[in-house]
Fold this sequence. Notes:
Elements: E1 8-15, H1 33-41, H2 46-53, E2 56-63, H3 74-94, E3 99-104, H4 110-123, E4 128-131, E5 135-136, E6 144-145, H5 153-162, E7 166-168, H6 175-182, H7 194-208, H8 211-214, E8 220-222, H9 233-240, H10 255-261, E9 263-266, H11 273-283, E10 288-289, H12 301-308, H13 314-329
Parallel strand pairs: 1-2, 2-3, 3-4, 4-7, 7-8, 8-9, 9-10
Antiparallel strand pairs: 5-6
Helix pairs in contact: 3-4, 4-5
Amino acid sequence: MSVSKIQKIALEEAFTLPELASKTRLFTGPNGAQDLARDLLDIQGTRLERMKASGISLMILSLTSPGPQDEADPEKALALARRANDFLAGEVEKNPSSFAGLASLSMHDPETAAFEARRAVKSLGLVGIIVNDFQTVSADGEQIIFYDQPEWDFFWKEITELDVPVYIHPRLTTPDISKKFLDGRPGLRGSAYFFSVGVSLHVLGLYVNGVFERFPKLQIVVGHMGEHLLLPLWRIDHRLGYNTGALKPKTQKTFREVIKTNISITTSGHYGTPALLYAIQEIGIDRIMFSIDYPYETLEEGPKWFDDITELSQGQKEQIASGNAKRLFKLN
């Protein structure tokens, strides 16, 4: 296999812990659940070999979804986050030229989340944060927490002081919503469709509740070519502009303004060239970063798709492939 000439940074790339490997049976990758579990556990072996062949110079790793967000017990959620972050830092230390990491957090309360974020960034050297949409807080999975309410300002203040991006990643929705909306259509529950619904709602919640207004330096990353945020961008601002009273966004900025200054997207698991060109037109090339979504996608398909794009110049491709990620994550 020839090595790609365009060196890439990929930043929605998953691993798992040995004690969590059995949970990956709920999901599947290109080669089935058994190979998915194997690939999630492998970091320094076959993964590294295939990275180099595909032109991936650096992979920013994160614990696979749902991670601590699926743990209803606060103490267990924190223990899982700390275990994952310590493990990840150890793997990065083995090969810092090839790997970096995003910290997992328990999001049961803003103070605990902020404290672990600071530990992971300042003490462990991780380069950002990943949260898997909402936090489950009840054993039946129905009670959940979003992070767009005023009590979470403590957390967002800490994140902006740390000056690291937060990647908002999808997870499966609650049992009740799944039953009401997805009974009879279970194939839409995950990455084919509903994953993007949850993340898009969460990001828009941050916007309408004024989080970006209060923390103008906050940087959020979403995958899968922007989830469901880009195509309806004009209509979101158009219709929100009619709202008054309690329905009016708690911000003076349009969502278009926010997405161009506070939100970046990645190509993870979305290899559509027309969609990429549309995203560039809507939010600008400096807000788009290459990613794969390994091992839920192969290490070969995404890089080949990107290498074969003819509509972009070499300089534009290098900016998406690595330049924007280097700037946002402050990578050497």
